[in-house]
Amino acid sequence: MKKIPLMVMILVVLSVLSANVIDPRFIARVWFDESDACFVMFGDEAWWEGFEVNDCCFTTSAGSYYLPPDYVQPSESVFVINLSQEIPDFTIQRNMDFLRLTNPDNPFFFTEELRWGPQNDTSVHMHALEPGQSAVHVYAPAYAVHGHYDTGRTWAKDNQIDSPDPYNPASNYTLRVHLEDPSGTPAPNIPVYSSYFDYAAVYDHYYNNATDSSGNWERTNDTICRSILVKDPQTQDTVIQELLFPEPGETIQINGVISQAGMPDPEPIPQAGILRCYPSILSRSTGSSINLKYESDIPLGQQAKLAIYDLRGRYLYSKKMPTMGETVWALPGLSSGIYFIALKDSDKILARSKITVYK
Questions:
Q1: CA atoms within 13 A on the CB side of 209
Q2: Cα distance between the two ends of the chain
Q3: Residues 82 and 135 in one domain
Q4: Sheet holding 274-278, edge to edge
Q5: Are residues 25 and 138 in the same domain?
Q6: Domain count within the chain
Q7: Domain match, 12 and 109 both
Q8: pLDDT at 121 over 90
Q9: Residue 262 lies in a domain
Q10: Is 145 found in the same domain as 16?
Q11: Predicted model pTM
Q12: What is the rounded CA–CA span in Å between residue 182 and residue 336?
């Protein structure tokens, strides 16, 4: 009877104590040598299921293959098979292909599949492996917004074929995101949504915090295919949406511009009345004219005027307000963003309103 390794025992205990089922990973690593021979490393998690490699089917784009009947599985808990050498006529392409591991006679066997190629979509886990690189079977943890902690199996690229832990890549990569407004002011507290599971991105469930006070977001992770999404908090327009296929040791910098940087409302002075504005949201369909009406028990003086400011409190334009307290203002060209309109009588601010411009 095979001896169960300590790591497998730990995984079993964790599976029992945790609300999540931890699926064992039979294949730990896959790589090619300089002659394009394909090697597969089986890890010690395979023993959890009483793994027998002779019962497994290896499928590529060229067909399905089994090890010869006289192949003897090594007794070590971690072992390597040169599939190109051990299986007659085994065919696999290093530049674009897949390797699928199944056991047709075991309905409880967890099918494993690694996909690679030049395309930038979720049909592959990574771009082609170079000699000396390996694909490592990893658990990708994430924290869901609704409070449920989850893990998923996927594949990471590594810059070596071996390490003390077969399931732990030796190489990482760094992803940096910088966000600012059109004037160059850093944009803090903007969520950067991230998904790196082995299925389509679920941005509403998984994300890693938000930009810091300098508008920066940075993470160092295993080299896993990752989807990144940033939306403008005001317009909800997509600012960044990229599917990344990082290389080990790489640093990726992504920059984005949002409509505003979350600056405080300028001129926070108590109002003497209400300045109603319609429409409050301007787009191509609404045009650039707004209707303004001042409501107060105090009548306006001859010096009353309207002034418009951007989110940084910079004065842009002004217009005289009739003493009857109503007017239509055909605004000059404004870029997308949020603006404040202040109604002044001499130097006293009587009321304010806000508009949002979408281009």
A1: 10
A2: 71
A3: yes
A4: 274-278, 289-295, 326-330
A5: yes
A6: 3
A7: yes
A8: no
A9: no
A10: yes
A11: 0.65
A12: 10
